Amino acid sequence: MTDALRPMTRQRLYEQVIERLRQYAAEGGLRAGDRLPAERELAQRLGVSRASVKQAIVVLEVQGLVEARHGGGTYLVRDSLDAEPVEKMVERRRRLPEVLEAREALETKLAELAAERRTEDDLDAMRSALALMAEEIERGGPGTEGDRLFHAAVTAAAHSGLLAEFMRSLGHQIAESRTESLRQPGRPARSLAQHRAILDAVAARQPRQAATAMRRHVRTVAKVRLLDWDPDTP
Asked: Are the C-beta atoms of residues 226 and 62 closer than 8 Å to each other?
């Protein structure tokens, strides 16, 4: 059935605040590292409650666009505040737990099989992916492409066509969970270290240790601010 006649939604006040902040940053030429006005000042200038401003800041923080430092203000992480629509965040928040459950089930088994079946070429692919991820992080990026290539290399090393097909069918959702995880402060370096532990176990042909290392990694991926965010809490 068509979705065109679904109930109308009214834009939340904090969504309007986000749009005003985006305009403010663009018109003021703000860049990464620049500070936004204090919440109290923003509330006064916009004519809204501090709760609405705080919720807007939380949304921008969840998206990795700003960093709210305790007692030290809010700073841009990127050169703009082009935020993703809140409704897309709500939808991703709804499906993310099931995606993470599927990832843990599939990738833990893939790591176990990779430790049993991997070839030297498979190991080379994993090492190359981690080298790229390390370079991306060193340049200040989240390491997304290296992360993607590493998990693809583990999947290939398992030499299971059916499991690989399952992973491909979840490609878009897995990419979303990867982006969500790697935007968490300090997460890229931690993920890189966990990937290296997985590689060490696969290289040593230790299936149980490889599965354990992968499970620990995916459970870390599951710890994202998006899942703690409530779009309707003031």
From this structure: yes
